[in-house]
Amino acid sequence: MAFPPGFLDEIKTRIPLNGLVGRRVQLKQRGRGDWWGLSPFASENTPSFHVLEDKGYFHCFSSGEHGDHFTWLMKTEGLSFPEAVERLAGEAGLDMPERTPEQKAADAKRGTLGDAAEVAGRFYQNALRAPAGRAALDYVRGRGLKEETIAAFGLGYAPDDGTALRNALQSANVNPDTMLEAGLFRSGQDGRAPYPFFRDRLMFPIHDARGRLIAFGGRFMGDAKAAGVGKYINSPDTALFDKGRTLYNLHHARQAAYEGQPLLVAEGYMDVIALVEHGFTASVAPLGTAITEHQLLLLWRISDEPILCLDGDEAGRRAALRAATRALPLLKPGKSVRFAFLPAGEDPDTLLRDRGPEGMTGLVQQAEPLDLVLWRTEAAAHPIDTPERRASLEDRLKKLAGQIEDETVRKQYFRAFNDRTWDVFRAARGQSGPQRGGRTGRFSPNAPRPRTPMTDRIRSLRGRQERFRQEILVASLLKHPELLADFDEDLHRARLDQDLDKLLRELQNLMSSGVNLDAETVSHHFASGGGGVLLRALRDPKILQAIKPTRQTTELEDARRTVEDILRVQSQNALAGELRSVSSRATDEGDEARILALRESYSDGETSGLALDDDAV
Q1: Superfamily of domain 101-241
Q2: Which of the four pLDDT bands, split at 50, 70 and 90, describes residue 523?
Q3: What pTM does this model have?
Q4: For residue 235, how far is the Cα from the chain centroid?
Q5: Any residues with CB less than 8 A from the CB of 484 and at least 6 apart, and which?
């Protein structure tokens, strides 16, 4: 909904941001209106998260998270924007803006339906303890559920009776139309009276994200096949309930996930209940259908990488592929899904009973990333023993990656698929040597190279120690962070010592966070984040002299050429290493063809004036 001008600002004025954030993060003031603390979004020992009270926003240098009062609640509690506004308006002592007559009528209708659902929920719980519900109660006890678990999840029983529920609802002044609109009754045919939607079923209450009862799921207690009914059914869609936009147990799982529990997505109610009872309290389930786009977005509000727990049989693999395909276009940087495949014939409930929480923990820790699941599915679909079949695999993978709407993630998937495919193709040919890496950047062996004379900058790098070249590379980027975007792909493949690599990756993360980078901001970030020692080392006079611009160029142009030259040197050295490796193991015509291709690429680099270490070949 739209809010009137000034309403959101008034909330911010009444509620100090450092006080709101300080409920979760221990903040210390470093200056006027500037508060710092350990990031709630990343694991760190030195504070990189700060709140600027005067400007009304928080920023995390470690993760790139950024926002205001409302964003904070959306990020840390999974609230929607309207929910965050309503929460803070209440704390600020402000009434929510007046709603239109239509909105008021819809609110009243939802309130009436919600009241009816609450009455029905209490009726079902009481019926579970009555003689008619004995079989259902014995069933859940036989599944190992404790009494407190049965009560916590509000489990109940819908008797095979056409009047008991109606009488309970009428006693609470629920009219017949509301019974139908709430999905508690179905209309009778041929003039017959409406009858209960659920009969002889173990009942599972379904709540919205705010914990309000909106619907039910029911498990048939008899022989569903003989009776010609579904074993599990959910309430029909109503003004309260849309099964494609709802997740079972979300209202409880949300807080547990923010407290550090892995967000697990199981297939059914009993799986979720069993997981929660064994300590996996951030567990949810879709409602009888394949996971939908809206459910994925709900999950990503709570966790960057929810884990789908699926059977390890063929049906589970198909379910994983459906979920992966559904998620693919929606992927964003840092947002994905992982897959925990259970042993064939097992579900979370049976696994936990047989192996305990340790067995489930092991599977969760080994959960597979989305790109691996997709790649393995395609690679196993057809043989890849001929060039044409391998080309078909590459084409299918390219089409999958092309579905990703986010450009950055799409680029990474192209690279990941290329790397996995190359490794398998090489293994099939019996080759070995350094891993290929995604060769799609400007300095790949097959990338076109300008045939220009060797530059003075490259000559100055010949014979230098590899560490020194790495230091020059990183120092140039620290001084001119605007160059990061120009060399993004090649920097991801750059070979750096561990300390320099860590610094470069953090610099790239800082760039992707949307912060306006300049040399001063970068220097402050690393100095406050514990990187001061390395930063000082990179300001050694020898390094500064090496990156000092010439009179013929601007400082930025010279830095760009320096970065480009060092990356070219690394690329050519890597190519030489691969050429040596393949040459030493050549056994067939395929190897000879590969050697010729490598030599051609190597010669192109030589002609382009690429400097090599003296012992590169």
Answers
A1: DNA primase, catalytic core, N-terminal domain (3.90.980.10)
A2: confident
A3: 0.63
A4: 30
A5: 477, 491, 507, 508, 511, 517
